[in-house]
Design a protein that fits this description.
Elements (H helix, E strand, L loop, with lengths): L1 H31 L5 H35 L6 H32 L13
Helix pairs in contact: 1-2, 1-3, 2-3
């Protein structure tokens, strides 16, 4: 069971880290322009953080629950089913993380912070 939960917990921690980092940048932007409002902070918690968490919790329950339910019903779950579930979860996780990173980059630009990408020399 721990083997199944470990990647899901790591995925949740990464999502939480990115969302909270984005939140800190959004607060910095609000303070920079003097537009900080507590109501917007609560709206962010409800609309910006909660959906990410709920989506990930739902996917975690699906990835754990479906194999156990099928096994409990007495059927043998095939590897193709497990791989399909894992692929769906991976795609959704990638979409969530990509969205969070895009928001972070946008907030950096709004704060006038330049992001430099390291280039590797080949040769």
């Amino acid at each position: 069971m721990l083997l199944i939960l470990k990647p899901l917990i790591i995925g949740l921690i990464i999502i939480l880290f990115l969302v909270m980092f984005n939140f800190i940048l959004a607060v910095a932007i609000s303070l920079k322009y003097g537009k900080f409002e507590w109501k917007k902070l609560l709206d962010f918690m409800k609309k910006g953080l909660l959906p990410y968490i709920l989506i990930w919790v739902f996917l975690s329950l699906v990835s754990i629950g479906i194999p156990y339910l099928i096994k409990w019903l007495g059927y043998d779950i095939g590897l193709s089913t497990v791989i399909s579930i894992d692929v769906i979860i991976g795609v959704v996780w990638t979409a969530i993380v990509s969205r969070a990173i895009a928001d972070i980059v946008k907030n950096f630009k709004e704060l006038d912070i330049e992001i430099k990408i390291a280039k590797l020399n080949s040769g």
